[in-house]
Please model this.
Amino acid sequence: MEAVTASAPAKVILFGEHFVVYGEPAVVTAIDKRAYATAKLRRDNQIRIESLSLGVSGIFKGKRFRPEKGGAKARLKLELAKQAVQQVLEKADAKQGINVRIDSEIPVSAGLGSSAAVAASTIVAASSLLGVELSSRQIFRMAYESERLVHGSPSGIDPAISTYGGALQFQRGKDFVQLGIQANIPLVIGNTNVQRSTGELVASVRQMKSRYSSIIDPIIKTGGELALDSVEALKQGSLQAVGDLMDINHALLCAVGVSHESLDRLVYAARKGGALGAKLTGGGGGGCMIALAEVARLKRVAKAIERAEGTAFLARKTDQGAKVES
Amino acid sequence: MEAVTASAPAKVILFGEHFVVYGEPAVVTAIDKRAYATAKLRRDNQIRIESLSLGVSGIFKGKRFRPEKGGAKARLKLELAKQAVQQVLEKADAKQGINVRIDSEIPVSAGLGSSAAVAASTIVAASSLLGVELSSRQIFRMAYESERLVHGSPSGIDPAISTYGGALQFQRGKDFVQLGIQANIPLVIGNTNVQRSTGELVASVRQMKSRYSSIIDPIIKTGGELALDSVEALKQGSLQAVGDLMDINHALLCAVGVSHESLDRLVYAARKGGALGAKLTGGGGGGCMIALAEVARLKRVAKAIERAEGTAFLARKTDQGAKVES
Model:
């Protein structure tokens, strides 16, 4: 086999970010922006990773790294895909060298699960190239492990979405539930391009919760109730209700202090542009927001977000998880 | 006696607007912006009301009205003070004619209780002029009754504040509680100058509540809990906690859909300008917001609000209720 290309989707959190830390359910969906990984055999036992989207490349030989493009910093950006390849090589018990070329449509550092999609697509491409058959569960475990090795302790939401696609309900300490939602979920994703640290925001919520527990605890519980209600609304395909719940969820996230002026600006712009609802997605404090809209209004909402100084693109739920492309 | 001038203060809702409709407590304070009423005896039995602040005047004779300034529409603007005078005349069992001149520092139609302050100050001026002694309770009842005759069914918060001054806790179906807060409450009040209908906003919350009761009910309950916590923070003089609670309260009001882009803009501006906390006050959908700040920062916060296209003025709690001035 000459080369194998595989892909895996990005994710957005529809409901429940932050509250999920305290045991409440979150609802997450795969979206039709994908990372693509193309794997080829090498004649040696080195691993070459090239990221077209990040503009970096280099060769891993054991623990050593030789940058080709992007200098020494390239290693950090390529480490994840290398870990993904290594997981597959270990499973295959092979000492084979492999080239992987990554090309991703997913904005990085935007809370959209770009890393997990890179890991999952790389795992599928490399395993397919080597003729190793992996179950979805195994792909998920390997993507999770790659993320864990590079980024610390991820929640597992991102590799689950990238592996399985579709919409999932996620709750700490429980297996995620595939929701099997039939309805299209037409979204506009708006990036504030404001940098933020999810870790710091999680810490600030914890501080608020300890200081004002009589207020913040019921807000968190209400956020969990809202996520459960959203599952019903999504299953019924009631976009208006999903939109209303997004608006309320956004306000609850404001209440625990994780919104940001730039996010609220885009949220208001989207609503005025005709969105059924809008909220921040992910860690908050900047980063991305999502707006739900009738398909015919998506472009108008996107324009409204752009006029409010955001970067906008359209997205919808995809049921296509990690898969071989060719 | 030649003439008597009396005054009564404006109010702001510090915590609990809208949630108070569903039986939760609200916390309201009198602020040092006052309406002044000067009463003089006439030689006839007519009632002449002049509002310097509204630029209208006219004479009531029985059920008839003769405008002097402001045309036929002047009646609507002067009716409240006339009702207040009439309450006092009935109490005095007098057929005496009276001139009342109103001069108010309180912005009208801004949710700051301008009407109640006009009513209370007029009642105190007229009763003092006629030598009728009224208890605070009687002043309150008369101001309430004047408002009821002109504006329909008021909650009673506004006449209570205008009469008693200070900060009150108010709960539907219960007597209000005078909180006896020692601390200064240094505020900036920002007016969006966006018109809105409190009635429509109250109705839209009711609709949200009936549609999403599993979420809106606990939000309302949490709003009540927050108001109770604020009383503790106010009593302890912990301005930082009061500010934090304002921020959370604002978000809960966003969650029930009563904020407005213009309000959020001023709220963010105030926070960036150094406020300890900020929130909409009153009905929302436009109207006014309040920001709490250390005294040394008040002017900076006011400037930030003005730069964000609001009209700002400084205010603080006053314990001076309705009273004779001279």
